[in-house]
Amino acid sequence: MPLVSMRQLLDEAAAGGYGVGAFNVNNMEQIQAIMEAARETRSPVIVQASRGARRYTNDLFLWHLMQAAVELYPEIPVALHLDHGNEPATCISAIELGFTSVMMDGSLEADGKTPASFEYNVAVTKEVVEHAHARGVTVEGELGTLGGVEDGHGSGEVHLTDPDQAVEFVEETGIDALAVAIGTSHGAYKFSQPPDGEVLKMSLIQEIHRRLPDTHLVMHGSSSVPQELVAKVNEFGGALKPAWGVPLEEIQLGIRNGVRKINVDTDSRLAITGAIRQVFVESPETFDPRDYLTPARAAMQALIAQRMEGFGQAGHAGDYEPLSLEEMSERYATAAARA
Ligand SMILES: [Zn+2]
């Protein structure tokens, strides 16, 4: 099947009461790991690429790798999503390339660093929604800012999402999904100790979901940073500082409260790095990249399959017929006419 609209994946997840992992990719092995994990667990899945990933791969390599993925795994519904678009032009170029979903992150200005005003955020997000929905493409917005900096993106400041503003933001922009800031950060160092309700505000998700029951919520920076993965990297010569992520139970609590998309990148990076370091330390005579990329890919696949089971998307790949982007654009037009 061709790439599917992310909106449809999230609508189905809401109907089925589960979440869908959105996994970042930068190369062929990561795409293969995700697709194999999806086949193994029969999961619909979101593959996402940041601006940094698009630069690293060059758009055309990324696009054709994803074409290979949908050809080779016809039974898996896959959405291709732009992670943290910094300005409308970035989102529009992704849509032109064939992405079925884009994030317009207007919580920051176009430099990807300076926290933006609410009015600016509404204006740029609305502009992208109008362009995207006319083409059947999904839009995720963000209100509030996450901690941490990833791929050069982030202010480093945490501004929690205000529930009142969230309602106004969704009404004014018409977005399909809302990324909320609840205290999570990008990168490996999310928390300096296992997080409690003071630093990870799951109660905020419950409040936003109560006010916006029909908006799909997105948790960014939601790697769990398993201690065994950190330990493995360090065992084989790495120098990671103690790091904690978002425990799976907290994510599952979010899923019971309207979270439909869960972004995971750091965990994949840790799995890959641990596997490669192990080969380098245990078999220093190795110099064929396949000798370390094969176990790296397998480690990421195992991690992703675990997440798919944990988020509840496993077993749901065959639940529905994918809608075309044309059908999605007609749906948006009909909904707009009724409003
Ligand atoms: Zn993010």
Brief overview:
Helix 2 (about 30-40) runs parallel beside helix 4 and helix 2 packs across helix 12 (about 290-310). The chain has 13 helices and eight strands.
Descriptive overview:
By secondary structure, the chain is of the alpha/beta class. The protein has 13 helices and eight strands. The chain has helices at 6-16, 28-41, 51-57, 59-72, 88-97, 118-133, 163-173, 202-211, 227-235, 248-255, 266-282, 289-311, 325-338, and strands at 20-24, 45-50, 78-85, 101-104, 138-143, 177-180, 216-219, 259-264. It has an eight-stranded parallel β-barrel, surrounded by nine helices. Helix 7 packs across helix 8 and helix 9 (227-235) packs parallel to helix 11. The longest helix is centred in the last third of the chain and has 23 residues, at 289-311. It is globular and about 65 Å long. The relative contact order is 0.17. The model has no long low-confidence stretch (mean pLDDT 95). Bound molecules: zinc ion (ZN). Zinc ion binds next to loops.
